[in-house]
From TrEMBL:
Belongs to the glycosyl hydrolase 76 family. GO terms for molecular function: mannan endo-1,6-alpha-mannosidase activity. Keywords: Glycoprotein, Glycosidase, Hydrolase, Signal. This is Mannan endo-1,6-alpha-mannosidase.
Length: 409
């Protein structure tokens, strides 16, 4: 073809790919759309690659695979489609590590607290939804509070590691969990929201599930610390992090706002609301987060979720394109636990899911884009955009799913 001026116009090819069909009021339609998007996510799955990982442009996005499996696990629960169930169990068991806490040897030297947490969320969801337990043998599965099943044992084992690492870092900032636990990483000096919000959420979910007040006391403590250093503001903004480098002692705060940070604290607060049997303090905090998330991460004209820090500039990184998955997931699960915000949250998810479905018209095969506000595919597609679209659509089903379990004894 070189040298040949081919003047075929694009008209014949411009059969604009139809957007994914989605009727947000029809359960069958939502399930079908979610199924199509899940297939688009699964093209990233490479059974030949490192155990249980999704292909990524670089090797260190292990946490995103954890988030992906959490999303697919909840997909399985919400839709009853068991296509991925065997792979989910296989991937989780290959990454749980010899101590049953999601510290696999392959991640040694790289793994950060928040990376581990994004796998622990899968274990907690499995626990809350009565998912088939992983085989788990030995001392790490055999202590009084843990024995109910392996998902609880794994979650508690990880939680105990976070407590240890909090205590190791107690000399700065009056507490707070560091982002990284490997001293060589720059994030070793960052005490940030995704990490401390994650510890808060895991504590709160364990408190709700087990009724054990040790976890609730930790949730309160992490909440108080987060407020004191200024990661949480009085009007429920959640800022990215604070530093204990060079004697800074958490005196300054990075005020960037990302959707997954507020989502992380939101769902922790929802679990504390449930743990306290509908306590008004936690309800007001849930409402505060929902209001602030609405004004910060949803467009004022169309009420569509967007990653305000990077999306319009098309500058979201491989991590950042996935953050809306976290916000969708934990808004949906918050609506399950806190009836007073349910209607508002479902409204936000519906407008956003419609936008997301319209974006799922890429490459002629329903690939989803990043910007849900454009009414079409914007050309930016990766694992994170696909996972975000899946979560916003499947969470329309969250409040119709089975109730979240509590410990049966
Ligand atoms: C859709 O097309 C893109 C580009 O060709 C491809 O990478 C992707 O695997 C396809 N997705 C599905 C679900 O077939
Ligand atoms: C899933 O299947 C189970 C049993 O097969 C049924 O009880 C349940 O209602 C189904 N859930 C959904 C969301 O369709
Ligand atoms: C409550 O949880 C803590 C922390 O995991 C544990 O040490 C303790 O044994 C638990 N208490 C009961 C009564 O199970
Ligand atoms: C660092 O801050 C904590 C409380 O936030 C305080 O207790 C401690 O004294 C401070 N350390 C230094 C060296 O200023």
């Amino acid at each position: 073809m070189r040298g040949h001026r081919n003047i075929i116009t694009c008209v014949a090819l411009a059969t604009t790919a139809a957007a994914l069909r989605l009727d947000v009021n029809d359960e069958a339609s939502v399930k079908e759309a979610a199924s199509t998007i899940a297939q688009g996510l699964y093209v990233y799955h490479n059974p030949d690659s490192t155990a249980g990982q999704f292909n990524q442009p670089e090797p260190w996005f292990w946490w995103l695979s954890g988030s992906g499996w959490t999303g697919l696990l909840e997909y399985t629960v919400y839709t009853n489609d068991t296509t991925y169930q065997a792979d989910i169990l296989s991937a989780l068991s290959q990454n749980v590590g010899p101590n049953y806490d999601f510290i696999p040897p392959e991640q040694a030297g790289h793994e950060a607290n928040d990376d581990q947490m994004y796998w622990v969320y899968a274990a907690l969801s499995a626990l809350e939804h009565g998912f088939e337990p992983l085989p788990c043998e030995g001392a790490r599965c055999e202590c009084a509070d843990h024995c109910v099943n392996s998902w609880l044992a794994i979650s508690v084992n990880a939680w105990e590691g976070f407590v240890e690492r909090w205590n190791e870092a107690i000399d700065t900032c009056g507490g707070g969990l560091k982002w990284q636990w490997n001293t060589g990483h720059p994030g070793f000096y960052y005490k940030n929201s995704v990490t401390n919000g994650g510890f808060f959420q895991i504590s709160a979910r364990l408190a709700r599930y087990t009724g054990n007040q040790t976890y609730a006391r930790w949730a309160d403590k992490i909440w108080d610390w987060s407020t004191r250093v200024g990661l949480l503001s009085d009007d429920f903004h959640v800022f990215d992090g604070t530093s204990d480098n060079n004697g800074e002692n958490c005196s300054g705060v990075n005020h960037d706002e990302w959707s997954y940070n507020i989502a992380t604290y939101l769902h922790g607060a929802a679990n504390m609301y449930a743990y306290t049997k509908g306590g008004p303090l936690w309800e007001s905090r849930v409402k505060g987060f929902v209001e602030t998330a609405t004004s910060t991460f949803f467009t004022s004209d169309q009420s569509i979720m967007y990653e305000q820090k990077c999306e319009e500039a098309r500058a979201c990184s491989t991590d950042q394109t996935s953050f809306k998955a976290s916000l969708s997931r934990w808004l949906g699960k918050t609506a399950v636990l806190v009836p007073s915000v349910r209607e508002h949250v479902l409204g936000l998810l519906e407008t956003s899911a419609r936008g997301a479905a319209a974006s799922c018209s890429g490459h002629g095969n329903s690939t989803c884009g990043m910007r849900w506000t454009t009414g079409g595919f914007d050309g930016q597609a990766d694992f994170g955009t696909q996972l975000s679209a899946l979560e916003v659509v499947q969470n329309l089903l969250a409040t119709e799913g089975p109730e979240l379990a509590i410990r049966p004894y």
